[in-house]
Amino acid sequence: ATAQVGVTGLAVMGRNLARNLARNGFTVAVHNRSPERTRRLIAEHGGEGTFVPSESLGDFVDSLERPRAIIVMVKAGAPTDAVVNELVPLLEPGDIVVDCGNAHFAATRRREETLRGHGLHFVGTGVSGGEEGALHGPSIMPGGSAESYARLGPMFEKIAAQVDGTPCCRHIGPDGAGHFVKMVHNGIEYADMQLIAEAYDLLRAGMSASPAEIAEIFREWNSGELESFLIEITADVLAHTDAATGRPFVDVVLDQAEQKGTGRWTVQNALDLGIPITGIAEATFARSLSGHADQRAAARRAFAAASEKWQVEERGTFVEDVRRALLASKIVAYAQGFDHIRAGSREYDWNIDLGGTATIWRGGCIIRARFLDRIREAYDAEPELPTLLVAPWFAETVNAGVPGWRKVVAYAARAGVPTPAFSSSLAYFDALRAERLPAALIQALRDDFGAHTYRRVDRAGSFHTLWAGDRSEVEA
Ligand code: 6PG
Q1: So where does substrate get bound (predicted)?
Q2: What is the Cα–Cα distance from 308 to 91, expressed in whole angstroms?
């Protein structure tokens, strides 16, 4: 047994992770259900490092040093269970199975418990950064036991992206913590993308700007506070021309956004935990709305396109307002995402370090951004921060952006440009800072029709008004 780490499942993500490990000097056992992929990896990339190929799972397991560290990189769901079930009888106590797929954290918790019963470690690990990230340095979010991290950490930290000399990898917490954090990462990714899409749509509608012109605006934004991978590739995509038609590429892509489901999981779990991640939810629903082609066609026939022909007066001011609206809404989405992580951490007893999570998202992952340094600083300075919105830099930035944000949302409403994420983020901000919310009326109504009781502003306790009787108040 000579290999330090193994990878089974050699589709593009697995292959690139294996290559990354080998390029970093680790001896990597490789295996794939159909051996052609293993042979191709060796033929095409065998020279990049030391690989130990096996055609059977048994040989693969035998080729690994103990305690074994085996990365499983197959489709989430049934394929993961199939590989794990096949592996378990071949392993020995102390061995580690690492699931680097996009598994649901609840499935990871279940698998971790089962393998723990066999004396094995199961490490659900979030990996972000797509194919390129896997090869050149992803952001890595491992869950599982501290003991397993002691074995895996040095390898993962070496192959991860590095920012200012710090690896974009850290132990997130026990059992499903890594996959949970990756799930919320993806939810934030949905919000980020929806906000970018709304900004683009507004610039296009409000200034009759071409995609190429908007690409320039994004390019410029990318040199300021908004600097991030997604803003950078937005500029690239908007500048791209379709070869077949000569039209802007974005105009030939069907406008129905798909998803594999991690955003949906984030929203589902946030509902269970009672955390209002409205930006992520709007982004997820905006994708599903876009896919309802029949309803959209029917509504297009029934209603004229926009309520009012609309041109902004001053381009420069408008662009700056949209930038501020984007930045403020983005801050809201991240504040909500980090609230969600904190709630998950409490619910499942994970003790997740929020500043540390921001640290490992600064590089490698899809939402990597300059901005994440600010989040790290905010949580490092005040770990119990009630919401990211009130940390000094965020509060200042949001305050400075509010007038522009309101103008943009009002413009959009008047012009009939849908901005669900911009609008709901502004509503969230206004609700949080409101002196009084109409929730009082909701409570009164609940008490009226269902005797659900209410609390008072001036006295402790729960009360009920005898609505159908003499309307006197009784203590509940
Ligand atoms: C990443 C991404 C990745 C995700 C894709 C597609 O962090 O590298 O989040 O894990 O699968 O971005 O996700 P959707 O198909 O749900 O948009």
Answers
A1: 102, 128-130, 185-186, 190, 260, 287, 446, 452
A2: 67
